[in-house]
Amino acid sequence: MRYREPVFRPPSEAESYLLPVTDGCSHNECTYCAMYRTKRFSVRPEADILEDIRLAARAYPDTRRVFLLDGDALTLAPKRLVPVLEALRAAFPELQRVSSYANAVSILNKTDAELAQLRALGLSLGYLGLESGDEAVNASIVKGATIDEQVEAVQRAQAAGIKMSVMVLLGMGGAERSREHAIATGQVLSRMDPRYISCLCVTPVPGTELFDAVEAGTFRMITPEQTLVELALLLEHTDVSGAVFRSNHASNYLPLGGRLPADKARLLAAVDAARRGEVALKPEYLRGL
Ligand code: SF4
């Protein structure tokens, strides 16, 4: 088994077997993201992937979860993904879930029948970084897909049975578009109606355009207290049929978790309590990326 550093995975994939299928990200242009700046995008040879699966099956035969690396393994055509999914099913009898980061273009490039085929072969969860539902913010961060395209991608994946986990970034609109960003993001989450919503706080990373803009003073970060205002606005405008909501990523100032819509009032009350100073926000030195 071989990994090319750096390797990233969602927090909820901590127990998963991480299988490199591609290296890097085929888009690699989001202005806030440095994850794969040091990796040129490439597709691993099928023989190498299948050999990795054989080795993993020997070492970890009771594997239940597999996460396909790297930034958007779903960019691969079905004819390349199908043999990988088939090999995983054959290698791991107890396999319950195969997941991957999934950007909108990678999903939209597949037909409904192809998405259904991938789901039938075990691909059951995709992680999409919406970051902002505000079209102006979306364009400024060079997300590579319009808001409508991202909504359609989530809806089509879920119609095929692939559950979607959507990530959003508090503060992505900066101080200038804070309110618009928060409201629009809640509204777009409502249109997407994903099964999971993860709320993170934007953190400028050296080597990104966002970091340079913050340094130059052309992007003004919101304060920790303003992230609470955004979180409340976002929750108020999020109307989904049934989703797990989390803001417990290391970057958050106020870790929350619950189900929407059932826990909406409780989550909003927790944000209000924090805004009144009744709950301490996570200190800066305890935050991570
Ligand atoms: S945020 Fe995702 S799509 Fe954008 S550059 Fe980073 S890995 Fe690629």
SSE topology:
Elements: E1 17-20, E2 22-23, E3 42-43, H1 46-59, E4 65-69, H2 78-91, E5 97-101, H3 104-108, H4 112-120, E6 123-131, H5 135-140, H6 147-159, E7 163-170, H7 178-192, E8 196-201, H8 209-216, H9 224-236, E9 243-246, E10 257-260, H10 264-275
Parallel strand pairs: 1-4, 4-5, 5-6, 6-7, 7-8, 8-9
Antiparallel strand pairs: 2-3, 9-10
Helix pairs in contact: 1-2, 2-4, 6-7, 7-9, 9-10
Iron/sulfur cluster (SF4) is lined by residues 25, 27-30, 33, 35-36, 71, 103, 129.
What is the succession of H and E elements? EEEHEHEHHEHHEHEHHEEH
What portion of residues is helical?
Answer: 25-40%
CATH class reads: Alpha Beta
Tell me the number of strands.
10
CATH superfamily: Aldolase class I
Radius of gyration: 19 Å
Shape: globular
Strand order of the largest sheet: 1-4-5-6-7-8-9-10
